[in-house]
Design brief:
The protein has 963 residues and is α+β, with helices and mostly antiparallel strands. It contains 24 helices and 47 strands. It has a twelve-stranded mixed β-sheet, sandwiched between helices. The chain starts with a helix and ends in a 5-residue tail after the last helix.
């Protein structure tokens, strides 16, 4: 221990220290959150008892000194299946903005005890009131009156609902900001009387299984899951725990943020919230974001900023706080050429338009049509892929013109419009009236509106959303039904047409198991809402339009000032002042060689906040590149710029670079801290510039700093070397093989060190041979081989998708079931791993399995003639509907094109699994969809499904196996 702290603990002060330890132990664990500048954020963790046998795991965040005065409070919680750590960053940001923030894990999540009650008013909602009681006793929290703190509540999904319920049950809540949440959970899980079986199952599994829920909820779920149909008791149970039950009591300013790609809680849930709260006289703003439970861009930074402004206005009474427009919608379209991401633009209006307004009547054509509900409702059609969107954002693909939905011939009716003569923006819920007949007492239909491209070859389901409806049909004349289609914001381009499809099955929902025939006819045009008051912001000009003239002027000025005198210093490039590293055409020859290069024509760029992995086999030139970067050796050609400054030996900008290359030397008899102090003194820079404590906190050395270095393990020596490199908190940190000689736990700790360091907006470059570690810790990669650049870019792009899928499991599966999966058509192998099932698909070129085709035909009520090997198979509808011919199934392909016999338009593809897929969807997404249908048929408890390819595979491919 250093001398100063030893002296502080001697004499009477040691009793003060002991008392402080006792106070902290009783109040909770206190930590300081590292930050680049004031104010520091303090966190205290506590288990707060809220009911008999129930302890709630909380964290309390404040910033600044205790003399900073009273401030408003914010309660912040997580979504279902998460815990309080999910909202830590937002809590820290709000604390820095002048709030006292209390986060908590809901019952049964994190370290909290108790049973899951799905926001039971006597359970989770009562817990919130207990937390408000606790805030009212805090000396730093502003009070409206005794026992009544000034408090806002925010959260997403499950947490968003509890914010609404808290406002309805506890009048002390002053403002709320719910996101991607529900108004009526019964409507969300049982829309129009149809059981949303996949999402309901995921609720149970992500909550830890039925035993973690209150008994009444578990019994209800098992009853409905078995029958496939919600009953009145189930509806009542969920309604009583929904915000709609206390809708007339929610009278506080409400910011509603709802996801457009969300088949769990669609936009109509937010619409009901907005109407109810506005009817109570409270201010309401509505924000439709690009993402949702099915994936897409969650716009986290923008939403957090808007929540902060909302609370500034209604908790701090800051009249100048900009809370944004009354209504905003994020519109997605096109690809950003700079990073490959979807382009997002905002549109807004002074008032919330609702889901209807500016309706345009679109005529649909089509005769009365019959189609079947197959026995067992199998094979099911596919709209959304619940639980899989987070991995790839499949729902957002529809905004980019990519279709990933499936409708099986003989299991749907369709009605088409004429091509639109000019672009049509749909904002809200289209409606249409149809007549439905059934050979049974009721029908379950899935209604959706497709955007169909010219020629009918591209069919896109906006946001992958569908409306289920249960129709009682006890009259031979059928029943007229007014269908409200899913709320969307989607542009139908000129030349495209709309297609109304009514299907009998959908993967995400429960359909009647008994076979039936449905007959559907049109009774009205399609009414399409256009919301004309909502205007899209003009696209912003590229950044270079602004900085290029300035950069040019500055460069010209630099040339003018230096042109008359010779100088060895290359002027800085202002355009690169915020770029940590740019390497251009860098070359270095081997000693005494004119044509053999260690590095040749190397160019790449590194941005702030990235953790860049520099990869390559031995002799690739990685260490040579790093040595040139640090000014240790001089390049033969090209240039290196760090924050716009050219690198040369002794360049001042190197003070912004920290490095650990080829090991670090320490004096073994000195302690770790003494070694660091000695190193910093040698730099000649002021002690206060070392930021020693911040570097030590990131490196996580703890009490080992006081010990002699000779007692250190290899892992501690590496961490000390990293701490030395981080002294001064350099903006660019370079690490060459930092995990050499470390065991797995030490490697994991080193990974966390790098991630923490980059999280503050700094940049880390790491060279390593441990590809699995690089894959977990790095955001971007540069791959070199024989001195040249092979590839550079984000990790996920370089890894790619490959032909292997990883199926996450909600529960373990027996070996016989794994063997059944391995035997599926199109599957080469299925292997159990710690993460689930690793499924390798057969090589492209597999032919249609006659057995599978027959299964599909039998399920859909059609007959099949011909064989897979013959190259031609014909599906003839037994129901008398339009037939479809399947052709082209020859060796060397894995698909056959189906041509509608009435139109001659390519409409579907029959793949090896027997699934019929839209041509636009024949890609990795379609392969996942086909596999998913088979897994569900085998009752495999799928929790997630996505591509799996290790960095090692991609690396060996890039360098040709020379590693």
């Amino acid at each position: 221990m250093p001398a100063a702290p030893r002296r502080w603990l001697r004499g009477p002060r040691r009793w003060t220290a002991a008392a402080l330890v006792v106070v902290l132990a009783g109040a909770g664990t206190w930590t300081a959150v590292a930050d680049d500048g004031p104010p520091a954020v303090h966190r205290a963790d506590r288990l707060l008892p809220t009911a008999a046998g129930v302890d709630i795991d909380t964290s309390y965040f404040t910033a600044g000194s205790k003399d900073a005065g009273r401030r408003p409070a914010v309660l912040l919680t997580h979504g279902f299946g998460g815990n309080k750590e999910d909202v830590r960053k937002q809590a820290e940001d709000l604390a820095r903005d002048g709030y006292a923030v209390l986060t908590w894990s809901s019952r049964s999540f994190g370290r909290s005890t108790g049973k899951i009650g799905l926001n039971d008013p006597k359970g989770e909602v009562a817990d919130v009131s207990k937390l408000i009681d606790w805030l009212a006793k805090r000396p730093e929290v502003e009070l409206d009156k005794t026992g009544d703190p000034r408090v806002g509540v925010a959260g997403a999904s499950y947490g968003g609902a509890v914010s609404l319920l808290a406002a309805g049950y506890d009048q002390r809540v002053d403002a709320i900001a719910p996101a991607i949440t529900y108004w009526n959970l019964a409507d969300a899980l049982f829309p129009n009387g149809v059981f949303k079986k996949l999402w309901a199952g995921m609720f149970i599994n992500s909550g830890g299984g039925c035993d973690t829920f209150e008994a009444s909820l578990c019994e209800m779920y098992e009853r409905v899951a078995e029958s496939g149909k919600p009953d009145a008791a189930a509806m009542k149970l969920l309604q009583e725990r929904s915000p709609s039950a206390v809708g007339d009591r929610i009278k506080v300013p409400t910011l509603i943020m709802q996801g457009q790609t969300d088949s769990l809680f669609p936009l109509d849930q937010a619409d009901k919230i907005a109407k109810a709260v506005r009817a109570n006289g409270a201010p309401v703003d509505v924000d439709w974001i690009a993402g949702g439970h099915d994936g897409g861009d969650m716009e986290t930074d923008r939403l957090h900023a808007r929540v902060t402004s909302w609370f500034d206005r209604y908790l701090k009474d800051d009249k100048n706080a900009d809370t944004g427009p009354a209504f905003r919608v994020t519109r997605t379209g096109g690809i950003d050429s700079t990073d490959g991401g979807a382009q997002l633009r905002g549109a807004d209006a002074d008032t919330y338009p609702g889901l209807t307004g500016g309706d345009r009547q679109v005529a649909l054509s089509g005769r009365e049509q019959k189609f079947s509900n197959p026995a067992g409702a199998s094979p099911p059609g596919i709209s959304a892929l619940p639980g899989l969107g987070g991995a790839g954002g499949l729902s957002q693909l529809s905004s980019l013109g990519v279709g990933v939905s499936l409708d099986f011939p003989g299991q749907f009716a369709r009605f088409d419009s004429k091509a639109v003569t000019k672009d049509l923006r749909i904002t809200g819920s289209p409606t249409v009236t149809v007549n439905v007949k059934s050979t049974t007492d009721e029908a379950v239909l899935f209604a959706k509106v497709y955007d169909v491209g010219p020629g009918g070859r591209q069919q896109v389901l906006p946001s992958q959303l569908v409306t289920p409806v249960r129709v009682t049909t006890d009259d031979e004349n059928g029943k007229d039904v007014r269908l409200t289609l899913p709320a969307i914001d989607h542009e139908v381009q000129e030349g495209h047409r709309l297609r109304l499809v009514l299907a009998s099955t959908d993967l995400g929902y429960a359909s009647p198991a008994a076979p039936a025939t449905y007959t559907v006819s049109l009774k009205s045009d399609l009414a399409v809402p256009t919301a004309p008051a909502v205007t899209t912001a003009a696209a912003s000009l590229p950044a270079w339009v602004w900085w290029l003239p300035i950069a040019g002027a500055l460069t010209a000025l630099a040339l003018l000032l230096t042109g008359r005198r010779r100088t060895t210093a290359t002027p800085p490039d202002p355009a690169l002042a915020e770029v940590p590293l740019q390497i251009t055409d860098l070359s270095k020859r081997y000693a005494k060689s004119a044509d053999r290069y260690a590095v040749q024509d190397l160019s790449f760029r590194v941005e702030k906040g990235q953790v860049l992995g520099l990869l390559g086999p031995n002799g690739a030139g990685k260490t040579t590149t790093l040595r040139m970067l640090m000014g240790l050796i001089k390049p033969d050609g090209g240039e290196i710029r760090v924050f716009g400054h050219a690198i040369r030996p002794g360049a001042p900008v190197l003070s912004r670079v920290g490095a650990f290359v080829e090991g670090a030397g320490f004096l073994p008899h000195l302690s770790g801290r003494e070694n660091l102090d000695l190193y910093w003194q040698a730099t000649g820079r002021p002690p206060e510039d070392a930021h020693l404590e911040e570097a030590l906190e990131i490196a996580g050395l703890g009490d080992a700093l006081a010990r002699a270095v000779r007692t250190y393990s290899q892992g501690m020596r590496q961490r000390l070397a990293i701490a030395q490199a981080m002294l001064g908190l350099p903006d660019l940190l370079i690490l060459d093989e930092p995990t050499n000689g470390l065991d797995p736990p030490q490697i994991r700790e080193m990974r966390e060190v790098m991630i923490r360091y980059a999280a503050a907006g700094r940049t880390v470059i790491v060279s390593s041979h441990l590809l699995a570690e690089v894959e977990q810790s790095c955001t971007h990669l540069v791959v070199m081989d024989r001195g040249r650049l092979v590839q550079a870019g984000p990790v996920h792009e370089i890894i790619g998708s490959g032909d292997t899928l990883l199926v996450g499991l909600a529960a373990d599966v027996p070996d016989p079931l794994v063997e059944k999966v391995a035997a599926l058509p199109g599957v080469d192998s299925a292997t159990r791993t710690d993460d689930g099932l690793l499924i390798r698909l057969t090589a492209r070129g597999a032919t249609v399995s006659s057995g599978t085709a027959a299964l599909g035909a039998a399920s859909s009520g059609t007959t099949l003639s011909g064989t897979a090997s013959s190259g031609t198979a014909v599906v003839d509808s037994a129901a008398g509907t339009d037939s479809a011919a399947v052709v082209g199934s020859t060796a060397g392909t894995d698909s056959a094109t189906a041509v509608d016999s009435t139109t001659g338009i390519d409409s579907a593809i029959v793949v090896a699994s027997g699934a019929v897929i839209d041509p636009a969807a024949v890609d990795d997404s379609a392969a996942a969809a086909r596999l998913l249908v088979e897994l569900v048929r085998l009752e495999v408890p799928v929790a997630s499904l996505g591509p799996h390819r290790r960095l090692e595979d991609a690396f060996l491919t890039l360098i040709g196996g020379s590693a």
